[in-house]
Each structure stands twice: as C-alpha cells, then as structure tokens.
What does this fold into?
Amino acid sequence: MTGVAADLDDPASLTAALAGVDVIVHAASYTGSDEAQYEQINVLGTRNLVAAAAAQGIDRIFYLSTIGVYGPGPHRNVGEGELEPNPVTALSASRLAAENLVRDHGGLVLRPGFVHGPGDRWFLPGLAHIVSTLGVWIDNGVARQSVISRHDVGRLTTALAVRPLPDAMRGGMLHVADRIPASVHDLVHVAAAQGLLTPPTESVSYEQALHVGLERGLSARHIDLIGHDHHYASTRIWADTELATDP
It folds into this structure.
C-alpha cells in the first residue's frame, strides 16, 4: 500500500487523497496548546474532510474523538446517549464540534477512554504528574476510569471499518474502552512500575484535595480527573465487533 499525503487545510489535497477510497478513519486532531489550531484543524479541517468525502460519495467516516467531551465527573457506567456532552476546555469543545460534522454526514463517532500503551505521552505520564504534585491519594484512589490500550483502539476501529455500517449506527456514537474500568489506585501503581512516580502514603477527601491541589498549582480539572469516576459503558462496541477483550 502506498501512502498519500494530504492536508486538512487544503481541500484539493483531500480530494486527491480520497480517490478510490471506500472508508475514512479520521484520527487527525490537534491537541497542543495553540487554541487557534483547535478551530483551524479540528473544526475547519474536519469540515473540509467531510466535504471532500461527500464529493467522492464516501459515507463511511469513523472519527476518533475523546471522552473528554463529557467534561467533569463523577460519571458512573454511563451508556451511549445517557449523558449530554459538557466540554470545559476549548480543545474538547473543538472535538465535539468535529463530532457533530461527522455525525451530520452519517459517520460514526468513537469516543475512546484514556488511551495507554507504547508511545503514551499524555495519560499515564499526566496522571503521574498530577498525583505526584498532589502528594496524596484522593479517597485512597478508588475513582474508576475508562481506559483502553492503543492496540485495542486499533483493532476495534478496524473491525468496524472493514464491514458495512448499519443504518442504525449512522450518525451515532460508541464508547471505546475496556469493559471493566480501572481504579486510580491501580493505575498509579502501573505508572510507578514504569518509574513515573512513587505512590503516595496518605489519603485525603476530595474537598481537601481541591484545597491542597490549588495550593500546589493544580487545577480543579486535575483533581476531577484523579478524584472522580469517569466510567463510560463500552459493551456495545465489543458486542458489535464480536471481539474478545485482550487478557
């Protein structure tokens, strides 16, 4: 297979790249610190891609978004369609806007949980930074998080993309996560095994953590991420793809 370069800012390049294409997996999102790029790449770029797909008659688009569009928790075992998105950052808002463009076209949005695995520069390192800066557990690390390996994101997305998209799924959304959430306690110990931090020895309440965290330069969003449940039910995608969860 020969790769073809294209630019979300360049509609002509997208049109050329999509010649002969049957299905699109859209995983090109800007997640850096330049807020102007959120609109330019995530929103306008996705609009360009959807328009190019429409011009080529491609109706199967799968967009890899994020559970970050739901905003602050606690969220416990939330199924698809049970909770309205509530993005609290410009980045998450731009991802939600991109979702809406894809769904309006009849594509399928995939919202992965926290992704881990080789090349992870954000999730476990970020969790380790927050916990080590805070210096204590929040409620002994009982908060549960929807997580998924990079490998499973790939095989679930591929399994969906290689088969026809049922009419009932067009314009829809699926959570992409392990069936069983992971506790912050367990995730911290995974990060510790990788040398990212030393686990805390003391625990405080959520409200106490907010006070301590703000004093140490953390935001309320940081405390929410490690102190509240962010658990989104993902049974549908595993059933629809008929894949088994990796041990």
